[in-house]
Amino acid sequence: MRFPTALWVFSLALLTPAGARAQIQEGPPAWAYPVNPPNFQRTPDDGTIRHVPDSAAGFTLTQLRDLFAAPDWHPDDHLPMPEIVARGRKPEVFACGVCHRADGPGGPENASLFGLSAEYIIQQTAEFKTGLRTNSASRVATDLMIKLSKAVTDQELAEAAGYFASIKPRSNIVVVEAEAVPKTQVRDLFLAPLDGAEKEPIGQRIIEIPENVEHFVSRDSRARFIAYVPVGSVQKGQTLAANSDPRVQCAVCHGTDLNGTAIAPGIASRSPTYMFRQLYDFKSGARKGANSELMKPVVENLSVDDMIALVAFSASLKP
């Protein structure tokens, strides 16, 4: 499930389009659309019971990989999960809490759901179902969401949406500006640092990695992330977001702190990798649906650098 960057990027209408179309024609950046390598193999389950901090629970890798059983490491953090969130419905509707975690923080590979309105979650699921929501590059996570959206019932969706909407959003990302970043590899649809301390130039990228990879693999809903962004990105993004056409202000849609209003979801402290994909998908035409006609002419003028700066800034804010 995804949320739009929506109308706040109308503030960028005065940006020049130099190089923007060429970057789209070159194809989506691999760092934002990670794909498991052809020889990718998951770590085999040796039967070890895994644990995460501040939890008495324990699960094996096999249990953690069960798409019909969301691991609940911290049950006191949220209300009881509805059946559709905790276990889904076999054979087609996976447990929402598996991919999005028990109380909805998600990860770089998908959306965080807490803090979104129930109406918005339902709307976006419908757009997956009707084919309005796709990606600029093939992604397993999106394919799974499309499959689920076609099988979930209205009642199940309403229960899941109401549950995630009830959870107060929290920050789980630290944005760090850096010239050099850890070398990474794709590990099951997200970036993870290679063993050792070797680094490489960040270039024109966002490198978002879990603070503790094994905790994230264990689907710990309290897992945290470090998002490395190019030096100067946060200030550039803040400047771009404030460079508003007087007819359309960011605050009108998302509020002065980007934490959302009655007409648009909060976008502060969301995964910058995920948010970048939304801007890029609007620009490429892969993402349609609500607000896409308003978004399209604006993102046409954004370069990849502009998008990186904008999402670096929004991710640095507190929800």
Automatic annotation (TrEMBL):
Q: Which Pfam families match?
A: Cytochrom_C
Show which residues constitute the signal peptide. Answer: 1-22
Cytochrome c domain location is 83-168, 232-318
Keyword Electron transport found: yes
Q: Which GO terms describe its molecular function?
A: electron transfer activity; heme binding; metal ion binding
* Protein's name according to its UniProt entry: Cytochrome c553
Q: Which InterPro entries match?
A: Cyt_c-like_dom (IPR009056), Cyt_c-like_dom_sf (IPR036909), Cytochrome_c_Oxidase_Subunit (IPR050597)
Supply the PROSITE patterns for this chain: CYTC
Provide this UniProt record's keywords sorted from A to Z.
Electron transport, Heme, Iron, Metal-binding, Signal, Transport
| Annotated source species | Bradyrhizobium shewense
